[in-house]
Amino acid sequence: GETCSALLLFISVMTMFMSGVVAIFEYDLKKIIALSTLSQLGMMMFSISLGLYELAFFHLLTHALFKALLFLCAGILIHGVGNTQDIRSFGGLSLNFPLVTVCMNLANLSLCGVPFLAGFYSKDLIVELACQYSWGVFILCMMFICLSLTVLYSVRLTYLSFVGVYSGGPSISVCESDHSLIGPVAILSFVSLISGPILSWLSFPAPVLIFLPVFLKWAALLF
């Protein structure tokens, strides 16, 4: 049992690390989101290797909601700029896709674990409980590095897509008047705002008590 969980722990942390590093150097929009999914799967396996099964499932549910939102927003962007997935040919899309920009940034922030969005409730709990288990400094450092990699590729994705100068083809079709595209995005945005607290109230009968020194308590937020 011990060796199995130690092995799973090591593999999952390495998965989180490698997928995060690859996502930073990737230019394909869908590949970045897929690699971030891989990184979050590493997070779930990490939580399973610590014996936090309910928590891993809780993270799976919340993550499914905002990752679906990310993929839908990415699809709308790809459709809008003329079927290109290369984020080097995006830029300044917040002017043409205001709603999709808001929703995609919401999903990205939720993925990064910004307080009181859906991802925060599951991710932060996993991180803090992992800090409470004494698995050694290396695993903790790797975990925090993986957290900061998540933030890095999310910020890079946002910057290359929505900030800066548009560098793509001559035509952008604005899809935001199409309700069949925007409806699911709006619903998922609302759900990924409220699903964190609601699911945590439903699945954990009592609040989790976590005792940590101050710098570890702040570490996730700082990274």
TrEMBL record:
Enzyme class at the top of the EC tree = translocase
Q: Which reaction does it catalyse?
A: a ubiquinone + NADH + 5 H(+)(in) = a ubiquinol + NAD(+) + 4 H(+)(out)
Q: Where is the NADH:quinone oxidoreductase/Mrp antiporter transmembrane domain?
A: 4-144
Coiled-coil residues: none
InterPro entries documented for this protein: NADH_DH_su5_C, ND/Mrp_TM, NU5C-like
Q: What is its EC number?
A: 7.1.1.2
* Signal peptide residue numbers: none
Alphabetically sorted, this entry's keywords are: Electron transport, Membrane, Mitochondrion, Mitochondrion inner membrane, NAD, Respiratory chain, Translocase, Transmembrane, Transmembrane helix, Transport, Ubiquinone
An example Pfam family from this entry, by short name, is Proton_antipo_M
Q: What does this protein do?
A: Core subunit of the mitochondrial membrane respiratory chain NADH dehydrogenase (Complex I) that is believed to belong to the minimal assembly required for catalysis. Complex I functions in the transfer of electrons from NADH to the respiratory chain. The immediate electron acceptor for the enzyme is believed to be ubiquinone.
Report the protein name in the record. NADH-ubiquinone oxidoreductase chain 5
Q: What is the organism field in this record?
A: Daphnia pulicaria
